[in-house]
Amino acid sequence: MIRVVLPQGLQLLAHTDAEVQLDVPAPVTLARILDRLEQCYPMLAGTVRDHVTQQRRPMVRFFANGEDWSHQSPDQQLPSNIAEGAEPLLIVGAIAGG
After folding, report:
1. What is the reported pLDDT for 95?
2. How far from chain centre, in Å, is Cα 63?
3. How far is CA 3 from the centre of its chain?
4. Left, alpha or beta for 29 (phi > 0: left; psi -120 to 50: alpha)?
5. What are the helix and strand counts (H, E) for the chain?
6. Domains of the chain with bracketed CATH
7. Segments of 2-88 assigned E as strands
8. Spatial distance between the Cα atoms of 73 and 32, rounded to a whole number of angstroms
9. 23 near 1, Cβ under 8 Å?
10. Which of 20, 32, 33, 42 has the CA that lies 20 to 30 A from 83?
């Protein structure tokens, strides 16, 4: 099971806790995790990535093992400890302003 930590806004929208667990088939990639997240929580479709282009929304970031994966290919395999559920994938809402 893959562990995903959601920001509070998505938690409220999905009526879930901060961390969700998803069954994602190998190879575990960001695209596969997001596909499964949207299948399990259809109300999140379009909030993390665009409906049409499937591109990450500008104010959303992804972190694996403390590293920013926001600009990595969504088809790149995630680290093994994320794929094994030992560590969670973090979805973080970016903050902008001055």
Report:
1. 76
2. 9
3. 9
4. beta
5. 3, 5
6. 2-93 (3.10.20.30)
7. 2-5, 19-22, 60-64, 67-68
8. 12
9. yes
10. 42
Distance in angstroms (rounded) separating the CA atoms of residues 81 and 28: 11
Two structure tokens written together for 5:
């930590």
What's the pLDDT tens digit per position in 27-60? 999 999 999 999 999 999 999 999 899 999 999 9
Residue reference for tokens 């993390």:
48
The answer, as to whether pTM is greater than 0.85, is yes
The total number of residues shown for the chain amounts to 98
DSSP H or E stretch at residue 81: helix 80-83
Q: Which two tokens stand for residue 59?
A: 């104010």
Instruction: For residue range 68-83, list pLDDT tens digits in order.
Output: 999 999 999 999 999 9
82: left (phi over 0), alpha (psi -120 to 50) or beta: alpha
